[in-house]
Amino acid sequence: MSSFKRDKKEEEDSGGNPYQNLDKTIVLQEARYFNQTPVNPRKCCLILSKVLYLLNQGEKFTTQEATEAFFATTKLFQSKDVMLRRMVYLCIKELSTLAQDVIIVTSSLTKDMTGKEDLYRAAAIRALCSITDSTMLQAIERYMKQAIVDKNPAVSSAALVSALHLSSTAPDLVRRWANEAQEAISSDNPMVSYHALGVVAGSRKNDKLSTVKLVTRLARSPLKSPYALCLLIRLAAQLVEDDDSEASQPYIEFIECCLRHKSEMVIYEAAHAIVNLRKTARDLAPAVSVLQLFCGSSKASLRLAGARTLARLTAKHPTAVAACAVDLENLISDPNRSVATLAVTTLLATGAESSVDR
Amino acid sequence: MVHTTMEGSLFEPTLYIVKGMCILDNDGNRVLAKYYDKNVLPTTKEQKAFEKNLFNKTHRANAEIIMLEGLTCVYKSNLNLFFYVMGSSHENELILQSVLNALYESVSILLRRNVDWRTLIDNLDAVMLAFDEICDGGVILDSDPMSIVGRAALRTEDVPLGEQTVAQVLQSAKEQLKWSLLK
């Protein structure tokens, strides 16, 4: 470790780290260079990343400084360099909360969002939605609806995630996009499907009946995306928790079915839900055996996930966890301290006197 | 009882899963960091204190995952860089792990497998874009490294020789040599 450290310091001295000891006023002065034509993309990218670096390090910009930097940045729209344009979007997003009159770039961003270059479109949508307030949303509504069902997954995801963010400030407007989002759930792209489900479920949050319909329909024709499945399991589990009569049986069956999925993420999600929902030790058995397997995994995050969920179970079903005592004992000497601590506390809570000696 | 404080609870059906992502150097200083939840570590001061604490607890043992200050943090290190992804302690650890893998792999591809501090600093803009492509305001935007790198718009290497600095030419020559030796 110490040799690496020395390496780095030596390099720092000789190599010239452009981000070392940056001074805010100097960087802001450098930003004036953006006014020059023709634009030098590489040089401008470096200056933009210096601005972003300062913001990232927590440097405080006054409103005036941020506004100046913002307006200088808008000059760079004249360049067609993809990398530079992406950095400009990033700067717009980061400065949008600090600077004034940021809506000045609305038309440039709308142009990029509806243009031909796919790499621009996705990022432009996200930047645009970060500067748009609910009053201006209506102006771009048509484009948003189109973008949600766009063939390009990056564009579709960008629109869906932006819609999700906007739904906290303009829920009624975003609800009007639910049809498009609904359509996107069946996308072949796993992320698009996931984001679409998130938007649709969010818009139905306070409407239990339509949530029931949504979950019932999707549980029958299982989603391909592991992330979307995890979300669906959470929605289904919530329905079971609200109403644990016979009516919720299909949801339980769906969740148990997910225990046999090929993605560990989904298997764990299902096991975690079952452990928290099921009442009798017999119902728990399949989920507990999955968690038991996780405890023996070579990946620390799996061991922790398994041990943590078992630890939570001890309060409700000490006997079910006691069956895993041997697996938990193996974890006492785990190289990961969080795992080892969990195993010890769980064993102490469940353990019989006979196992204390070991 | 220990367990009353963490009694059984379902995961919340939300897309806002990632609380933060950061890359630290081998002194525990921030190279890049993003926090996505206003209620979690709202000020830079708190964030940096958390990062120091996180670094102190993790830099010696490459144990992959730690529970710290109410957050589940998954991490991975290489030479002189430390990558972290943070989520709530009531979150599916494996989802967080998938985000960390996406972060590490995309940075690794962007840096052409030279995951070290110097190379990262030289490509900080591309890595900032990768951050932006992985997570948008706490929502996982993408977890496929190839598609993330594709979206982060890799700089095209067709800059005319005359416009490159001597250092850049040397660097690319060095890289070519290294790759030809590694083959």
UniProtKB/TrEMBL annotation, chain B:
Its main location: cytoplasm. It is a peripheral membrane protein. Residues 18-156 form the AP complex mu/sigma subunit domain. GO terms for biological process: intra-Golgi vesicle-mediated transport; intracellular protein transport; retrograde vesicle-mediated transport, Golgi to endoplasmic reticulum. Keywords: Cytoplasm, Cytoplasmic vesicle, ER-Golgi transport, Golgi apparatus, Membrane, Protein transport, Transport. It is found in: Cytoplasm; Golgi apparatus membrane; Cytoplasmic vesicle, COPI-coated vesicle membrane. GO terms for cellular component: COPI vesicle coat; Golgi membrane. Pfam families: Clat_adaptor_s. Belongs to the adaptor complexes small subunit family. The coatomer is a cytosolic protein complex that binds to dilysine motifs and reversibly associates with Golgi non-clathrin-coated vesicles, which further mediate biosynthetic protein transport from the ER, via the Golgi up to the trans Golgi network. Coatomer complex is required for budding from Golgi membranes, and is essential for the retrograde Golgi-to-ER transport of dilysine-tagged proteins. The zeta subunit may be involved in regulating the coat assembly and, hence, the rate of biosynthetic protein transport due to its association-dissociation properties with the coatomer complex. Oligomeric complex that consists of at least the alpha, beta, beta', gamma, delta, epsilon and zeta subunits. This is Coatomer subunit zeta. It comes from Galleria mellonella. The gene is LOC113509236.
